[in-house]
Amino acid sequence: MKNPSPLIRRYTSYLMLERGLAGNTRMAYAADVRHLEAWLADSGLTLDAVTPEQLAAFVADMHELGIAERTQARMISGIRSFYRYLALEGIVAADPSELLERPGVGRHLPEVLSVGEIEDMCACIDLASPQGLRNRAIIETLYGSGLRVSELCTLERRLLNFDEGYLTVTGKGSKQRMVPVSEPCMQWVADYLTERDTCGPDPKRGEEGYVFLNRRGAHLTRVMVFYIVRDLAEAAGVRKTISPHTLRHSFATHLLEGGANLRAIQQMLGHESIATTEIYLHLDRTRLRDEILAHHPRNIR
C-alpha cells in the first residue's frame, strides 16, 4: 500500500495528541482509512468527497469478504473517528459516517490515573524552573476541569472568573460552556499568571489573550502539552499510556466515584449525548465489581 496521504498523516497526529491512543491503535486506524482510500480510488473517489451510501457499500464489501466482526467493528470505528476529525477541522461539511453501524463487540474502557498517580506527577514538577508554575497550572486545569487539550491551548484569560471559580471554554462545534473549577486550581493558575506578568515571557502580538504560553510568548500547541504530560508521567514512574486526554478521563471517573450526577459530568465535559458520558458509569461499575470480588464474604476463601 502506498504511503499515507497528508490527510491521513494529520489524522494520525490527531489520534496521538488529542485522543491519546497507543501506537498500535493509531497504526491500525490509519491502515483502516488507507484501505477505504484504496477502495474509493478504484471508483475515482476521494476521502473528502464520499457519501454515506458509498461508505455503506464499503462496509458491505467487508462483510462479503468474510472479515471477522471484531475487525469490522474496529475498522468502522477508525473510519467514523476519521470523519469526525474531518468534520471537526471543517474539511467536510457533514459527517458521512454518522449512520454507519458496527457489530456489538464490547466497549473500550479508557485509561484512568489514580489520585496518587496524579499527585506523584505534580510532585515531579520543579516549581523553581521557568516553566514550573505553568506546568503545574496545566496539570491542575486538565484534571480539575476535564478540558480537552485543544480547549486548554485556546483558553483565554478574559474568560477566567477567579471570584466565582469557573472558566468559560469553547468546545466542539464552537459551543461555549462554563466549567466550575476548584479553588486550588484557580490559585495555581493565578500564581502562574502573576509570575508570567512579572517575569515573562512577553506575549507575541496577537497572543496576549491566551492563558498558557511557551517560552517564546506564543500559546501552547497540543504537541507541547502532550509532551509535558507524558514526561511528567515518566518522571513519576507511571506505567500507563498517558496523554492529556487521560487527565480528562480521570476527572470524569473520579467525579463519578465521588457521587457526582452523570448529567452534571456530561455538562462539564461538553458531551452532546449522555451516551458518550455513560462510559464513565461503566468504568465505575467495573470498580464496584472488583470491590465486591475482593471484599464480599462469598468470594473470600
Features:
single chain; 301 residues; mainly alpha; three-stranded antiparallel beta sheet; 12 helices; 3 strands; 4% strand; globular
Concise account of the structure shown:
With 301 residues, the protein is mainly α. 55% of the residues lie in helices and 4% in strands.
Task: Characterise this structure.
The protein contains 12 helices and 3 strands, in the order αααααααβββααααα. With 301 residues, the protein is mainly α. α1 runs antiparallel to α2 and α2 crosses α4. The chain is globular and about 60 Å long. The protein starts with 5 loop residues before the first helix and ends in a 6-residue tail after the last helix. The mean pLDDT is 83.
Secondary structure topology:
Blueprint: H1 6-17, H2 23-41, H3 52-64, H4 69-88, H5 115-123, H6 132-145, H7 149-153, E1 160-161, E2 166-170, E3 176-180, H8 183-199, H9 222-235, H10 244-257, H11 262-269, H12 274-295
Antiparallel strand pairs: 1-2, 2-3
Helix pairs in contact: 1-2, 2-4, 5-9, 6-8, 6-10, 10-12, 11-12
Q: What is the general shape?
A: globular
Query: Radius of gyration in whole Å, from Cα?
Result: 21 Å
Alpha-carbon distance between the two ends: 55 Å
**What is the residue-mean pLDDT, rounded to a whole number?**
83
Level of helix content? 55-70%
Major β-sheet annotation:
3 strands, antiparallel
| Approximate strand percentage | under 5%
Low-confidence stretches: none
The count of helical stretches stands at 12
Structural class: mainly alpha
Strand order of the largest sheet: 1-2-3
Encode the helix/strand succession as letters: HHHHHHHEEEHHHHH
Number of strands: 3
